[in-house]
Amino acid sequence: VGSIKVDVMRPLGSQRVSVAPEAEEEYSVKFPPKGGGEPMRMEVLVRELPQMCGVMSNEQDNDDTDRRAAAEDSARSYIERWRLMDFIREMLQYIIREKPQDPYAFMSTYLRRRTRRERESPSYRDPPMEASINQDSLRATIARQNARLDAENERLRGEIDNLRQFCEEKGLPPVDEPLDLNIDAAALEVNQDLSGRNSQLKIE
User: Which residues form a coiled coil (predicted)?
Assistant: First the structure.
């Protein structure tokens, strides 16, 4: 649930209204009296108008969706690789338990001590290469693109079947057979006719 702020010019008053996302609704906004004046009321219609903001094509939307999904997969892989959520949760629990006077300096000291302990551990090793880390997100992106292409191919097959059925109903040649227009023969006949006329003009 989002919110919008409605201001009356000057301003004479202001109020916030909770609006439902992706919905068209009318809201009644009441402004409290100011300086002994009369209370005000305003009716506001809130709706989405993407055509007023510019609309991208479906292909651009799909590309943006894939890009966002790939970025989310990469961020998730990075967080899981370093176990950042577990580390942050542990640090916050430690701070809440100790309640230091300067929590930021306390966190800085905690991070330095934890980093030193991790690097001195015998099991510490350098992180893997970024290319190997992003393999999972790359596979996920390829899988989404393949699914989108499969859906597009299925749609095209349906359109071809509908066109083939239309041709059969109208007695037209099937769409998978070439149209026999005999263009070469027609062109030869026109050429012979023009040659005959040129010969007649030369004789005259």
Answer: 135-166
